[in-house]
UniProtKB/TrEMBL annotation:
<dbReference type="InterPro" id="IPR020579">
    <property type="entry name" value="Exonuc_VII_lsu_C"/>
</dbReference>
<dbReference type="GO" id="GO:0006308">
    <property type="term" value="P:DNA catabolic process"/>
</dbReference>
<dbReference type="Pfam" id="PF02601">
    <property type="entry name" value="Exonuc_VII_L"/>
</dbReference>
<feature type="domain" description="Exonuclease VII large subunit C-terminal">
    <location>
        <begin position="2"/>
        <end position="122"/>
    </location>
</feature>
<dbReference type="GO" id="GO:0009318">
    <property type="term" value="C:exodeoxyribonuclease VII complex"/>
</dbReference>
<protein>
    <submittedName>
        <fullName>Exodeoxyribonuclease 7 large subunit</fullName>
        <ecNumber>3.1.11.6</ecNumber>
    </submittedName>
</protein>
<dbReference type="InterPro" id="IPR003753">
    <property type="entry name" value="Exonuc_VII_L"/>
</dbReference>
<keyword id="KW-0378">Hydrolase</keyword>
<dbReference type="GO" id="GO:0008855">
    <property type="term" value="F:exodeoxyribonuclease VII activity"/>
</dbReference>
Length: 129
């Protein structure tokens, strides 16, 4: 009986050892196929490619946003009061600087200031039409 237990224990130990050896062999083969320096090289190459793609994407987005910004600046410039004056329009204000948009805000005899492209005119309200 003791001999049987000893044989069984010996057999189990050999099985365990065999499993561990097989596992070690598998790990070793895997590293032989793809050694660590090669794996590191692969990862570095992948990171470099991804970095290039990221830089390209950032540049593309920046150019798109820059064009959009330029378009907005052009639109804003067209709405500038000074630009409007260059197209022949004028801005009329009261003496205290309030812009006139209606005849309701001014009375006969009151002085008004009209801003033109190249200067200002001071006028006096005589009548309303």
């Amino acid at each position: 009986m003791l001999k049987q237990l000893e044989l069984k224990l010996h057999w189990q130990m050999e099985q365990q050892l065999s499993k561990k050896q097989q596992k070690w062999k598998n790990i070793t083969q895997r590293f032989e196929r793809n050694p660590l320096p090669y794996q590191l090289y692969q990862q570095q190459t992948m990171v470099a490619k991804m970095s290039q793609r990221l830089a390209y994407s950032i540049e593309k987005i920046m150019l798109k946003e820059q064009r959009h910004f330029q378009e907005l600046c052009t639109k804003l410039d067209g709405l500038s009061p000074l630009k409007i004056l260059t197209r022949g329009y004028s801005i009329t204000q009261t003496k205290d600087g309030k812009t006139l948009t209606s005849t309701e805000n001014i009375e006969r005899g009151e002085a008004i200031i009209t801003q033109l492209k190249t200067g200002k005119i001071i006028s006096q309200v005589v009548d309303f039409l």
